[in-house]
Amino acid sequence: MSRVDHMDVAAYALGVLDEQDMERFEEHLATCWACAAELETMVPVVGLLSDIDEESITALEQTHSDPVLLDRTLVALRTHRRRARFRQVLATAAAVVVFGGLTGVVFSNLTDSSTAPPFAGPTTAPVGPPTDRTGNPSGPSLGGNEQEGEQVDVTDPATGVEATFWLTSKDFGTKMDFSLGKLPGPRTCRLVVVRDDGSTEVVSTWLVPDGGYGTNANTQLLTLSAATSTKRDNIKQFEVQEIDSRGATDTLVTVPAA
After folding, report:
1. Which of 114, 149, 179 is the last residue of a domain?
2. Which of 31, 83, 94, 187 is 20 to 30 A from 68 via CA?
3. Which residues neighbour 212 within 8 Å (Cβ) at sequence distance 6 or greater?
4. What is the pLDDT of residues 156-175, one digit of tens each?
């Protein structure tokens, strides 16, 4: 590559090369770091020169016969260039700020979405890992962890569904942790609180898969947690009900509150 090729940087930056010379220089530029670095330094100069319009050139030509006009024109050009450069700096800074803000928001959203637990409904959530034990637990623990609340064990003689409830009085009302076994599927179930005055409240619903829970097909018990604003002293019983496709219900097991 000749020295002339290295001197084509300015002509290329100003866009005065013909198409053939431009292609030849671009091939040279791909392998010459010196020309690439020089071209990078000329980008701001080319940007400033692009701000000079035809009227400015005409005014410069007139300054050959009027030195005072020359001074005024140079001052005007310098002011215009400073403003153009200042606008460019402001635009770059604004872009950095916006990009940084967006990056922070995206990073925050990604962090939140990766650490937040899945939403399990307002009143129902798993209270621990499923246990492989079938039948009603005999102790105050579930899955090896100490369970809060008074334990109530019930097996429905008609359906065979087994239920273990742990009932805890809270300032907000009553908390119920419970496990169910011998519960075949598929079916849709719900937990209903029956108050002393005969009124009822549905506090949770769930789906039972084909294998069921605590069955030969799936030995794991279903473990859930729910809560109600009703005080325990005002609760008569809890009912685990099945809901059919028409909305009709059938009680699978009844658990007394006391």
Report:
1. 114
2. 83
3. 183, 184, 185, 218
4. 999 999 999 999 999 999 99
Q: What tokens does 81 get?
A: 């260039």
Q: Quote the domain boundaries for residue 244.
A: 141-256
Global confidence as pTM: 0.46
Number of independent structural domains in the chain: 2
Among 114, 133, 150, identify where a domain stops. 114
**Residue of 123, 107, 127 lying closest to 115 (CA atoms):** 107
Both tokens of 258, joined, read 């006391």
pLDDT digit string (tens) for 11-65?
777 777 788 888 887 788 778 878 777 777 776 666 655 555 556 555 555 555 5
Structure tokens, 120? 């399990």
Residue 236 shares a structural domain with residue 155: yes
The alpha carbon of 138 is separated from its chain's Cα centroid by a whole number of angstroms, namely 42
Q: Average model confidence (pLDDT) for the chain?
A: 73
* Residues 104 and 183 occupy one common structural domain: no
**Residues 226 and 183 placed together within one structural domain of the fold:** yes
Domain-embedded: residue 228: yes
Give the C-alpha separation, 213 to 93, whole Å: 61
Query: Is residue 136 assigned to a domain?
Result: no
Task: Evaluate whether 166 touches 150 at the Cβ level (below 8 Å).
Answer: yes
Q: In this structure, is residue 130 part of a structural domain? A: no
Secondary element (H or E) of residue 41: helix 33-49
pLDDT score for 100:
45
